[in-house]
Design goal:
alpha+beta, Heat Shock Protein 90, 2 domains, five-stranded mixed β-sheet, four-stranded antiparallel β-sheet, 53% helix
Length: 402
Amino acid sequence: MNKFGSFNIKIALITIGVIIAIVILIYTQILAQRIQDRERDIAGLYAKSMEYLANDENSTGEYGFIFDQILPQINFPIIATDRDQKEIILTKNVDYDTTMPENKRRDYLMKKAREMDDINPPIVVSYKDSVILNYVHYGQSSLVTELKLLPVFELITAIIFVFLGYIGFSYIKKNEQSNIWVGLSRETAHQLGTPLSSLMGWVEMLRNLEPQTPELIETTNEISSDVDKLGKIAGRFSKIGSQPKLAEENVTGLIKKVSDYFEKRIPTLISADGKKKKKVEIDINSPGEIKARINPDLFEWVIENLMKNAIDAMDRSEGLIRIDLSNSNGEVIIDVSDNGKGIDTKFRKDVFRPGYSTKTRGWGLGLSLSKRIIEDYHKGKLLLFESSVGRGTTFRIKLNNN
């Protein structure tokens, strides 16, 4: 699956999740509103009953109906006050300290009544629609509060579930990629074994040829060097998937060794006029011998990959690869810079992604593999430090020297 297909699936899943969350939220709010409306009706019924009794002089016996039938149905806080809203007539489902003095109890309950008014407007109980007798203040039951909070808990639960799912999916995906890397690497090392053995035999035959001219000797030595290099590459691939041994090595010396090998084999660049030819120059700057705990074979592989990327990025007649080494605060820093075409800002986040490549050939695995070697095996960092289109790119390696 390509990058855009994966991105579209993620967007679709997020969209579906958001729609589900919105539907649950709306439905929960509808249920809460229905319960709140029912509570409002009960409070209104209580107020209307009080109003009816106040207006009907012959219904004094009906007070028992209110206290026996209506009040027990009320499961939400309710406070009835006088018409001046200074005295408390009745309370139900309101918690307060019964031992507090009368004036403090009244002040506390009046404060709770005003808080209820922020939730629901008070109901007026009047006499013959003209004289206000009292006010009924009511809040909302714990059930309504819990229903309103339910979507929050559902959302938090969904976020935690998605987060754990993402972590699990990423872990599984990383393991699958790791297994692919290991399988591909070991199969490559195995496949290289047979032609390497054959090449070694051919090199020995060249060395036994007579006469041994200077040209033949030089050619044989270069072929032998390349065969040794291929053997080292096969060895590198065979180490993928196993924990490599780290030892304190001269990083400066290893980089110079890789540079010397490349200088004889890197291509020439032709200037715009088609005449001047210029080899890519490799400039190494180090304050001296810098050491770090590394695996020489795998570390050389990283430097080679960075140099190859730098060479591929050259689009001018004067190519330059600059490698700056420094050692400070127990950390070895290696900057590999080139004066090539640079990387566009919108592609910088993809440079270490397996399969990403700006070249017409290649699998786009070099930088991804290099990052894995530095960060997984050496516990360091490999990052794109800076890049400017038309000016060049710098990759930075950080190694812990403790």
